[in-house]
Design goal:
By secondary structure, the chain is of the alpha/beta class. The protein has a single domain, classed as TIM Barrel (Alpha-Beta Barrel). Helices cover about 40% and strands about 15% of the residues. The strands form two sheets. It has an eight-stranded parallel beta barrel with strand order 1-4-5-6-7-8-9-10, surrounded by six helices. A two-stranded antiparallel ribbon has the order 2-3. Helix 2 packs parallel to helix 5, helix 3 runs parallel beside helix 4 and helix 3 crosses helix 11. The termini are far apart.
């Protein structure tokens, strides 16, 4: 398929442009047939979206090595140790950033974390968090053990959003569709998305405001599973988002920086749902 990427007028455009270049290079190195062979050896995708709906706000705990704004978090961070800590702390899912140029992530990180997720009791699914613009990246996600992918509404036109979502679902993958504002909320709903992440970070100013989730949740259908993203560090933050109607939260930086990630994850995962 041709990549139909939307210009956002933000830093995201730079990331997406580099992503297109990187995906083309990987296609030259590893064929779709090779990925399909690897996929055939994978266990079935875990029910990532369904696992987020419990009587408490569930936690998708994120493994990330760096960010463009904060730099590298730790030179010695190990994905297997972090995954085990998140699982021990009761995370319902794990997010793994695989973008290399801007976040220092790799598909090897995803594969290792997914192996630990499958080995857990009960198993814990893994989200490939990346800037997905091409079916090939979905093939990669499944080949390296992901049970969910991220699609960013701001980055894709409507037809591409629908196409990539359907392609992922054909693999049995859950699809977390990320929105930032009212217009994107309408587009996600029109695309039939049922797992919707509300990112509290403004793409233009980089400011974070939990009121974004409070403002957008009423626009989403009652059957949607809603995930609050960005700016979540304390149980008070989680309680506020629970009041807004979220089912789950995605937490990265505030967990990855913790000395005791088990306790930190467990605390965030103990907040009851309100609705």
């Amino acid at each position: 398929m041709s990549n139909v990427i939307q210009q956002t007028g933000t830093y995201l455009d730079r990331i997406l442009a580099q992503t297109v270049i990187d995906v083309a290079a990987r296609k030259e190195r590893v064929s779709v047939a090779e990925l399909q062979a690897k996929i055939s050896a994978q266990p079935e995708a875990l029910p990532f979206a369904a696992d987020l709906r419990r009587d408490h706000v569930t936690v998708i705990a994120e493994f990330k090595r760096a960010s463009p704004s904060k730099g590298v978090f730790s030179e010695t961070i190990r994905p297997d140790e972090v995954a085990d800590a998140y699982i021990a702390g009761g995370a319902a899912g794990i997010s793994c950033l695989t973008d290399e140029p801007f976040f220092k992530g790799t598909l090897a990180d995803l594969e290792l974390i997914a192996q630990h997720g499958y080995a857990a009791t009960p198993p814990v699914g893994v989200l490939r968090k990346d800037f997905i613009v091409d079916r090939y990246q979905i093939d990669e996600a499944r080949a390296f053990g992901a049970s969910c992918i991220l699609l960013i509404v701001a980055a894709l036109d409507d037809a591409t959003l629908v196409e990539l979502q359907a392609y992922a679902q054909d693999y049995g993958l859950s699809v977390l569709v990320e929105i930032h504002d009212e217009e994107e909320a309408k587009r996600a709903v029109a695309a039939g998305s049922t797992l919707i992440g509300i990112n509290n970070r403004d793409l233009r100013s980089f400011t974070v405001d939990l009121a974004t989730t409070e403002r957008l949740t009423p626009l989403l259908p009652p059957e949607a599973t809603i995930v609050g993203e960005s700016g979540i560090a304390t149980t008070d933050d989680v309680a506020r988002l629970a009041e807004a109607g979220v089912h789950a939260i995605l937490v990265g930086e505030s967990l990855i920086r913790q000395d005791d990630r088990v306790a930190a994850t467990r605390a965030l995962a103990a907040v009851p749902r309100v609705h």
